[in-house]
Every structure is written in C-alpha cells, then in structure tokens.
From TrEMBL:
Functional note: Is involved in the reduction of 2,3-digeranylgeranylglycerophospholipids (unsaturated archaeols) into 2,3-diphytanylglycerophospholipids (saturated archaeols) in the biosynthesis of archaeal membrane lipids. Catalyzes the formation of archaetidic acid (2,3-di-O-phytanyl-sn-glyceryl phosphate) from 2,3-di-O-geranylgeranylglyceryl phosphate (DGGGP) via the hydrogenation of each double bond of the isoprenoid chains.
Keyword Lipid biosynthesis (UniProt): yes
Cofactor annotation remark: Binds 1 FAD per subunit.
Protein name per its UniProtKB record: Digeranylgeranylglycerophospholipid reductase
Source organism: Methanolobus mangrovi
Gene3D superfamilies reported for this sequence: D-Amino Acid Oxidase, subunit A, domain 2, FAD/NAD(P)-binding domain
Positions with a binding annotation for a 2,3-bis-O-(geranylgeranyl)-sn-glycerol 1-phospholipid: L370
Extra information: Reduction reaction proceeds via syn addition of hydrogen for double bonds.
EC number annotated for this UniProt entry: 1.3.7.11
Record-stated family: Belongs to the geranylgeranyl reductase family. DGGGPL reductase subfamily.
Length: 404
C-alpha cells in the first residue's frame, strides 16, 4: 500500500470492481479496499442478471454462471400465469450467477488491469481539506492509516456510510426499502430454464416472491416486501408461508436477508473529490430491486470520469458533474420510469392484479406492438393508464431530448 493514489475505491462489489478496472485501464494509480476478508462472500443476492447488459462489462464464464434462463413465468394471486419467453429479447434473456465467484472474478479483472486490491481493509472516514475529499482513513489488521487520493469513489453498498461522511443525503425511508429474505433450496423441482415470480398482497405485500434456478435442482427462493405495507410481519414470515405451501419437501441449504433501496434517483451523488456509485448511490431498479448491472454501469462511468477529471487537473463538482449527467440520462432514466410503475403497482389490490393478468394471459409479447399492449392494459384497467401518465410523459421527453 502506498500513501497516495489517483483514485481510492471503497467497496469491492460489482460497482467498485468495474470502476477500479476502468480507471486502472486508463493508466491511473488505483487502490480498491474491501472490509471483508473474502470478496463476494457472504452473498445477499438472488443473482439474476440480463445477458446483454452483462456482456458489456465481462465475457460470460461458465465458472460463475449457474443457469442460462430462457424466460420468466409470472403468477397472479388467482394462479393466472403470464409467460415471457426468450423470443421477447431475441433469444437473450438472463443468467443466474454464482456471485461468490463472479464478484471475485470482477475484482481479479481490476487487479489484472493494474489496480491494487486490499481485503480486510475498512474505510472509517474521509480525509477532508478545504471543502474537498482528499483521501480515506482506513483500518487494516488493527492498524489505522491515512491514504491520500485525488478522487475517492464510494462503492460501499446499501449500508453505505461514505455518502453520509461526504455530506450527501442517502437516507432511505421505510417506504423506499424492500426488505428481503432468501433461501438457497434443493428439491423444489422447478424447470431450471425459467425464473418464477409470484405477486399479490397476500403472498408478498407490495413486492414479490422469486424462484431463480441455480442448476442441479438448486434454486434461490426469496421474497422482497415493502416494509411500510407488511404490518408487523417480516419478510421471513411470508417466505416461510410460501415455502410451506409450495415446497414442503424442499431443503434449505443457505439463508440470507438484506435490504434493497427502491427509492429512485437521489438528488446528489457527487461532492468535490468524490463520486458515489451502485447501491451506495441508490441506483437499483425500484421495480425489480436488481442493482448489479446498474452498479456496473455506474462504475464504468465513474472510472472514465475520474480519468477525465484528473487529466484536466479539476476534481471539483464542476468536473465530476459529467458523472451525474451521464448516469442520470442512462440508468437514471430507467430508474425514474421504474419508480412510476412501482408506485402504481404497489397500490393495486389483488383483484386488480388478477384482472390485469387475465388481459395479458396467452399474449405473445414478442409480436405485440406498444399500441396492442396499451389497449390490453386499457381494457384491464382504465385507471392504470391514467396512473402511468408520468411514464409516458418521461418516454416522450426522452425521445425528444434524444432527437435534439
Ligand atoms: C436479497 C437480495 C436479492 C437481490 N437480488 C438481485 C438480483 O437478482 N439481481 C440484481 O441485479 N440485484 C439483486 N440484488 C441487489 C444487488 O445485490 C446489489 O444491487 C448489488 O450488489 C450492488 O452492487 P454494489 O457494488 O453497489 O454493492 P455491494 O455488492 O453491496 O458491494 C459493496 C461492498 O462494499 C464493502 N464495504 C462496505 N462498507 C465498507 C467499508 N467501510 N470499507 C470497505 N469496504 C466496505 C462491502 O463489504 C461490499 O463488499 C439483490 C439484493 C438483495 C438484498
């Protein structure tokens, strides 16, 4: 470990590793620190990702792919099933990862690009000078060190402290966090080609149950619910009820619990000398809770912007605004749209969800135009289109901005 780097990255999840790799490939001196002794472990994730987006960042490798998924089956409260199969995305659906190996592979890529990686190294505070972040205070094997950097990137996940230390408001209200519980199970007997989703207020208040195949008759069986809508009962209660009813003979091999921010874009993700990325910047999708790809996208943008800013000799918010602008017009656009849809759907009764499912049952999504889809939705629930008007406004605004 040196006493000074161009960039220090706090946290070696997908966001941190991609930022480290990108900045190191540009020739910057990079240190990535991770508080745990093993990168990627313990896992708090259902491990599902889109293939197309993943390939933008790393070549798929069978060592960390557990299942190659061909489609999704979504179940409404009355059992109506909607299938979204592979043609919908030209044969490109998703993978279920082994994150313990995947996260380590990403960190390895950053090391290969030239970044230094230190595990068992916890950031305890930021070094501030004249209104600029100038480095990180760290604790490593009982010793404390001050390490200087031109730019610090906070990639410390959902429980991030870096944002708070820098004066950025990253607090999340209970209505904006999905509380999750998950079992790795054997013996569910699911078709390993599909991901399964169960929605409805009885099964998962303002959330959903997921079953993601992990190969060899293993599956991640989990639930995310909105804390504010579930009353006294916790996510694990709903998960146990679901498992008892549907898979009484399956066996639990692992368990994890965690929170997913579903608040949409926060107001600020930069200060002088610092950028926040990934879950630390609340960049997960408000509908699905998925955050791996967004974290990687944000990491890439932050790595590039760190290089641009350091090359210009300006690490103030004036230069780092390039990061804000880029992530807001890419992943931020999708996050904002998802928030509108999430807010609409979490207000639905089970009866409304059933009626929506009936109107979409048997639909071939791959050959359906947007107009057909809108008509089907309109038939199911006229209020739905009115509630989603913000989404259409956003799409039109984006298209206009894009053309300009
Ligand atoms: C139950 C559950 C299921 C999920 N399922 C999916 C899914 O199927 N698909 C999907 O895309 N997303 C899913 N997510 C979300 C996904 O896990 C996150 O969005 C993703 O991991 C975010 O990546 P990140 O790099 O920002 O943060 P993380 O992966 O959380 O990495 C942050 C890292 O920072 C380290 N760290 C924290 N503080 C410090 C410190 N002070 N000093 C040094 N290191 C520190 C942590 O140890 C950690 O390694 C799920 C989340 C949960 C809880």
């Amino acid at each position: 470990m040196k006493s000074e780097y161009d960039v220090i990255i706090i946290g070696a999840g997908p966001a941190g590793s991609i930022a480290a790799k990108t900045a190191a490939q540009k020739g910057l001196s990079v240190l990535m620190i991770e508080k745990r002794q093993e990168i990627g472990d313990p896992v708090r994730c259902a491990e599902g990702v889109s293939k197309i987006w993943l390939r933008k960042h790393i070549e798929p490798d069978h060592r960390w792919i557990c299942a190659d998924v061909k489609g999704s089956r979504i179940y409404a409260p009355d059992g109506t099933m909607i299938e979204m199969a592979e043609e919908i995305a030209g044969g490109e659906v998703g993978y279920v990862l082994e994150r313990k190996i995947f996260d380590r592979a990403l960190a390895y890529e950053s090391a290969k690009a030239g970044a230094e990686v230190m595990v068992k190294t916890r950031a305890t505070d930021l070094i501030m000078e004249n209104g600029f972040v100038k480095g990180v205070k760290v604790m490593h094997l009982g010793e404390t060190y001050d390490i200087k950097a031109k730019i610090v990137i906070g990639a410390d996940g959902v429980e991030s402290k870096v944002g708070r230390w820098a004066g950025i408001d990253t607090s999340i209200k209970p209505v904006d966090i999905e509380t999750c519980a998950q079992y790795l199970m054997s013996g569910t007997g699911i078709d390993q080609n599909y991901c399964y989703f169960y929605i409805g207020n009885e099964v998962a208040p303002a959330g959903y149950v997921w079953i993601f195949p992990k190969g060899n008759d293993l599956a991640n069986v989990g639930i995310g619910i909105l804390g504010s809508k579930s009353g006294e009962k916790k996510a694990i209660y709903y998960l146990d009820e679901f498992v008892k009813k549907n898979y009484p003979n399956a066996r639990i091999l692992e368990m994890d619990v965690g929170g997913v921010p579903v608040c949409g874009s926060i107001e600020k993700t930069i200060v002088n000398g610092l950028m926040l990325i990934g879950d630390a910047a609340r960049q997960s999708d408000p509908i699905t809770g998925g955050g791996i790809i967004n974290a990687m996208e944000a990491g890439k943008i932050a790595g590039e912007v760190a290089y641009n800013a350091i090359s210009k000799g300006d690490v103030s918010t004036r230069a780092l605004k390039e990061y804000e602008d880029k992530w807001r017009t890419t992943i931020g656009y999708d996050i904002d749209n998802s928030l509108i849809v999430k807010n609409t759907f979490t207000s639905f009764t089970d009866k409304e969800i059933n009626s929506l499912a009936h109107s979409l049952e048997g639909v071939n999504f791959s050959s359906m135009s947007l107009l057909d889809l809108l008509y089907a939705l309109f038939k199911a629930n006229k209020k739905l289109l009115w509630d989603l008007r913000g989404l259409f406004k956003n799409v039109v605004k984006y298209e206009l901005d894009f053309e300009r």
